[in-house]
Structure formats: structure tokens, C-alpha cells
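User: C-alpha cells in, sequence out, please.
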């Protein structure tokens, strides 16, 4: 037979409830009013097997659902009245302050804890098997830490807590809410000055308070690492300023034009694997001084002839006969004039000029009454197309042939000499030109570490 709830025990329950100011334990109607739920119904009865015991305040969190109950004396038993489905309560810490042991109508021993929700203030009794010790959705007090710089990690870890963003925390520490998450940027430096612990399902997670410009908030510690962000755009701008200043200096007397265009480093080279290789992304450092100034091209015009012939090859109007291959070799390696002159005569200067203009190059290099002309910017454009396999240079074997000839050309006192003095082992594939007091050189430069760029230099009136 189940134990009898004696008059003395019932009296003890009522007195204990009154003493704690928690008479709602025993009044389901009061609990229902607190939760704004529908009228509760008695779901079962509990035979008390011991006296209710006040316990030290202990945090718990709910698992696997469960029900919040109110208790009311019913003769020799206590009735359990459901007041809230725990699944409907937002994540919170339940603080237990009392316990009550009993038995179900079938004689199974049970123990209930009297709890209160930190977030909503709900109170009631919960089967202890539905609770796990630990705090949930709460934060500790803020701790000051020495100010240090952090950056976002390269790969974020998966976690059930708020991650990968800078969050705001609102509400009291016992019922904190995450709001307004702003995505972390790997291009920013975050200054950390505070830390605190966030508890979720009994687990402790460290969060750091960060500031970066107008951005401020809390970030999961595992999303950050010590360091200062390397601002690629800032460094590119600084390099361009220095390059431009130098080019302006060397062209100040108006007897020179220079154009510079950086290429992506050679694949798998030291430059490509460098920590800040993105600074040298193709075209991001391009500058020129008087780059659009039109001047005598001398033999640099032969780059345009090579481009035009490969355009004809794309249309099946040119092929690599032994004579054409020998003529191209003489034109590039020794800068001989017989072969390009024959091309101009056969196809006409006007037609070639028209095609060059359609490709975005300087469109009027050739004339029957004056020496050929060009600009430094135009020479850079044709070399860029050659290097990247664009426009007339789509055939890989043709490109390799032209570049091999440029590497072998015999006049090496221009760009090759200059870069060799600065960086021994540098490779230069270029085409020179000299006529009277006009001197020029345009080439593709590959440094020993794999960095690459295109440079065109044209001078006049310097003797």
C-alpha cells in the first residue's frame, strides 16, 4: 500500500510554502496565470514519501522535453497539474531551490525539483530526470584583459553557439540574448579588451569583446587568433604611390615615357606562396608616366607585326612555312627589317593599322611618309595579350615560339641589363628599338622569386 500523506505532512507543506513566499507551488491556478497558458488539468497524482527539503540554489537546464507542474494536496496524495511544456520555454537556466520525493500510483519512486526559469520567471516542479546540472543561456561577469590585436581565423569551427559574427548581448546576465550579428571580416584587425563566459547546455564558451572601427561586440574566442590584419588594398596603394613617384621623376624632363603592368607571380613560385601574394595580383600595381605619349617606335613596332601575322593564322591566311619561321626569327632575334617590311607591303599599312585599332592598341603606327610610331601603354597591351594568350595569341605553341625568340634577341643593353644588375637571374623576353636618338625597349620580366611584370620604356632626344 502506498504511504499515506498524513495531516502533519500536509501541514508541513503548507507552512513551508508560506515561509518561503512560494505558495504558488501548491496552487495550479496561480501558476497558470503566470504562464498565460490554458486552464491546467490534473495529469497524475504523487504519493509523498518524504518531506519537501529546501536545497542550495542549483542551476539546471532542461533536456528531452518534460513538463512543469503545480502541486496541490488531494487527500492523502499530491496532485500534479501540468502548467507548461518545457519544449515551449526559450533556452534558459532553471534554478532549483527545493526537492520532493514521492512515488507514482504504480509505486515507482520519483523526485521533483522546485525550479524557476531565469529568462521568464516561470516556477514549478519538474521531474529531476528531465534536468541536467549546469547553466544555459547565461553569461558571467565581464573581465578586463590587456588590449591585444586579433584577426579572424582562416577556417571557422562548427559549434552550436553563436559563431563567425560580432554579436551584441542584451538583457541581464541571467537571461542574456544574442542580437545583431555582423559577419567577421578577415581583412580587419579586432582589438580585444574584455572577456566573459557564455554557458550553453552546461558547457562554458569564452567570448571576447572586440572593437574594429565602428564595429564592436562579442566574438567566440575560437573564431579569432592573435595578429594584425594585412590590408592588401592599403599596401597596393602604397606601392603604386612609390612607383608613380619614381616614374614621374624619370620622365620629368619630357624625353621619356614609361608604362608598368604587374603580372600574377609564376605558379608555385616563392612569390606565389608568399604570405601576402595577393598584393601582386595582376594589374593591381599598374602605373605609367606619359604612357599615352606618341613617339617614334623604332623596331618595337615589330611586336605589332607579330600580332598581326598570328591574327592571320587564326583566319588560315598565314602558316609557318620555313620562310615565315626564318623571317620571324630574324625580325625578333636580330631586329632585321626585311621581313616586317615585306609584310607591310603585302597587306598594306592601312589594313594593319585598322586591325591594331580594333584590338585596343595604338591604331596608327604605320605610315608611308614617316617613321612608325607607338606609345608605351600600347606596347604594354600587346605584351599583356602575348603573355596571357589573348586576342591574336591564343595558340599556345605560337606564343611559346614568339616568347622564345624574344628571350634570345641579341640587343640586351636595355631592360635585360638594368634588371640583371638589380636581380641576378632575372629572365627578360623583350623587343628593342633604336632609330637616331629614339631608343625603346618593351619586355616581360620574370624575377628569380617568380614575380613578373611588363615594362615599356621609350626615350627620345637624349643622344
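Assistant: Sequence out:
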Amino acid at each position: 500500500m502506498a504511504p499515506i500523506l498524513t495531516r502533519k505532512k500536509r501541514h508541513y507543506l503548507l507552512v513551508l510554502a508560506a515561509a518561503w513566499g512560494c505558495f504558488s507551488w501548491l496552487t495550479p491556478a496561480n501558476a497558470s496565470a503566470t504562464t498565460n497558458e490554458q486552464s491546467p488539468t490534473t495529469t497524475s497524482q504523487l504519493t509523498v514519501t518524504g518531506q519537501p527539503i529546501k536545497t542550495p540554489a542549483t542551476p539546471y537546464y532542461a533536456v528531452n522535453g518534460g513538463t512543469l507542474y503545480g502541486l496541490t494536496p488531494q487527500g492523502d496524495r499530491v496532485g500534479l497539474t501540468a502548467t507548461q511544456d518545457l519544449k515551449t520555454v526559450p533556452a534558459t537556466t532553471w534554478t532549483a531551490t527545493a526537492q520532493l520525493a514521492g512515488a507514482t500510483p504504480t509505486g515507482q519512486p520519483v523526485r521533483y525539483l522546485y525550479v524557476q526559469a531565469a529568462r521568464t520567471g516561470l516556477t514549478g516542479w519538474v521531474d529531476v530526470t528531465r534536468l541536467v546540472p549546469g547553466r544555459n543561456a547565461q553569461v558571467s561577469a565581464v573581465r578586463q584583459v590587456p588590449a591585444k590585436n586579433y584577426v579572424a581565423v582562416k577556417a571557422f569551427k562548427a559549434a552550436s553557439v553563436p559563431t563567425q559574427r560580432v554579436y551584441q548581448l542584451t538583457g541581464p546576465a541571467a537571461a542574456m540574448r544574442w542580437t545583431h550579428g555582423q559577419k567577421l571580416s578577415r581583412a580587419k584587425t579586432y582589438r580585444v579588451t574584455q572577456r566573459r563566459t557564455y554557458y550553453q547546455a552546461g558547457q562554458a564558451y569564452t567570448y571576447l569583446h572586440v572593437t574594429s572601427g565602428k564595429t564592436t561586440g562579442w566574438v567566440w574566442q575560437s573564431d579569432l587568433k592573435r595578429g594584425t590584419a594585412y590590408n592588401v588594398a592599403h599596401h597596393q596603394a602604397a606601392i603604386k604611390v612609390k612607383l608613380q613617384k619614381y616614374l614621374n621623376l624619370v620622365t620629368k624632363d619630357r624625353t621619356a615615357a614609361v608604362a608598368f603592368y604587374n603580372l600574377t607571380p609564376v605558379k608555385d613560385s616563392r612569390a606565389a606562396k608568399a604570405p601576402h601574394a595577393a598584393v601582386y595580383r595582376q594589374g593591381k600595381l599598374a602605373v605609367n608616366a606619359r604612357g599615352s605619349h606618341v613617339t617614334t617606335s623604332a623596331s618595337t613596332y615589330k611586336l605589332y607585326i607579330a600580332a598581326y601575322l598570328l591574327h592571320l593564322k587564326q583566319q588560315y591566311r598565314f602558316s609557318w612555312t620555313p620562310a615565315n619561321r626564318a623571317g620571324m626569327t630574324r625580325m625578333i632575334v636580330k631586329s632585321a627589317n626585311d621581313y616586317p617590311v615585306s609584310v607591310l607591303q603585302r597587306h598594306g599599312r592601312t589594313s594593319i593599322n585598322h586591325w591594331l585599332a580594333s584590338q585596343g592598341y595604338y591604331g596608327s603606327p604605320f605610315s608611308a611618309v614617316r617613321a612608325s610610331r607607338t606609345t608605351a601603354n600600347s606596347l604594354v597591351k600587346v605584351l599583356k595579350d602575348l603573355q596571357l594568350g589573348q586576342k591574336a595569341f591564343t595558340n599556345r605553341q605560337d606564343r611559346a615560339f614568339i616568347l622564345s625568340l624574344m628571350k634570345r634577341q641579341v640587343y640586351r643593353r636595355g631592360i635585360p641589363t638594368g634588371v640583371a644588375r638589380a636581380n641576378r637571374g632575372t629572365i627578360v623576353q623583350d623587343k628593342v628599338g633604336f632609330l637616331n636618338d629614339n631608343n625603346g625597349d618593351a619586355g616581360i620580366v620574370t624575377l628569380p622569386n617568380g614575380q613578373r611584370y611588363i615594362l615599356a620604356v621609350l626615350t627620345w632626344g637624349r643622344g
